[in-house]
Write a structure and sequence with these properties.
Pathway: Amino-acid biosynthesis; L-tryptophan biosynthesis; L-tryptophan from chorismate: step 5/5. Tetramer of two alpha and two beta chains. The chain contains twelve helices and nine strands. The chain has 267 residues and is an alpha/beta fold. It is globular and about 50 Å long.
Length: 267
């Protein structure tokens, strides 16, 4: 049976559009406010949610997400807050996944982690620093819990390795649009489109592009060639600049509405 995430991509492909995926670290700026932010993102048109595991030593995250994670950690956010927010997000009616570096998963117990994601109704886990060579156990554990395994590929990934990694992905393939870390940028890297084209040669799995999208025009551009558009830093910046009160939540919803229009105008 397809996961909710896989069902979403079936739906958006039938509508000839890409899906809009929003990212937020659990517990940012507080656990209570993170629930309100996710609700505002969904009310504005976000199709799926990534719950970030706040991590003190990130590899892929840029300064905006790093600051948000540090704030969440200082407020006590940890694994229970991740699963709590995942359950809330699923309860709002959208496919939801966890994005986490491998260290917290291993520390918690990978089988237990997969079981908790499934129990919360989550569709899968994005593991940016887990290589497929080191994930045989995770592969079986995720399969046992019927959740998606989502790996990250980059423009620097060789064609040979691209085929190898994407063959192990389910739900979607996370295509990093550029070499570097997350963060809103004035333009989307030209490497993103070329990377998606290379992935299409060896895989039929949906491809979502992340890193760098922050406005309607960029969302439309990426939606013209990808199956999903991932936005994180732009949402977090709104909260960092306007807070998570009524004004900040209104701006979150407005940003989601604008990005959603962009995604729908891409084709």
């Amino acid at each position: 049976m397809p996961t909710a995430l896989e069902q979403l991509f079936i739906k958006t492909k039938s509508e000839n559009r890409a899906a809009l995926i929003g990212y937020l670290p659990a517990g940012f700026p507080t656990q209570k406010e993170s629930k309100l932010i996710i609700k505002a993102m969904i009310d504005g048109g976000v199709d799926a949610i990534e719950i970030g595991y706040p991590y003190s030593d990130p590899i892929m995250d840029g300064p905006v997400i790093q600051a948000a994670s540090e704030q969440a950690i200082s407020n006590g956010a940890g694994v229970e807050e991740v699963f709590d927010l995942l359950k809330i997000s699923v309860g709002y009616g959208v496919p939801s996944v966890v994005m986490s570096y491998w260290s917290p998963i291993e520390k918690y117990g990978s089988a237990k982690f997969a079981s908790a994601v499934s129990a919360a109704g989550g569709s899968g886990v994005i593991t940016p620093d887990l290589t497929i060579e080191e994930s045989e156990l995770w592969k079986s554990q995720a399969k046992n819990e019927s959740i998606n395994r989502i790996y990250v590929v980059a423009p620097s990934t060789s064609d040979e390795r691209l085929a190898k990694v994407t063959s192990e992905c389910s739900g979607f393939i996370y295509a990093a649009s550029l070499m570097g870390v997350t963060g809103a940028r004035t333009t989307v890297s030209v490497n993103a489109s070329a990377l998606v084209d290379r992935i299409r040669i060896s895989s039929d799995t949906s491809v979502a592009v992340g890193l760098g999208v922050s406005n309607k025009e960029q969302a439309s551009e990426v939606a013209s060639y990808a199956d999903g558009v991932i936005v994180g830093s732009a949402f977090i910046k709104v909260i960092q600049e306007h807070g998570a009160g009524r004004s900040g939540l209104k701006k979150i919803k407005q940003l989601a509405e604008s990005l959603s229009k962009g995604v729908r105008s891409g084709r």
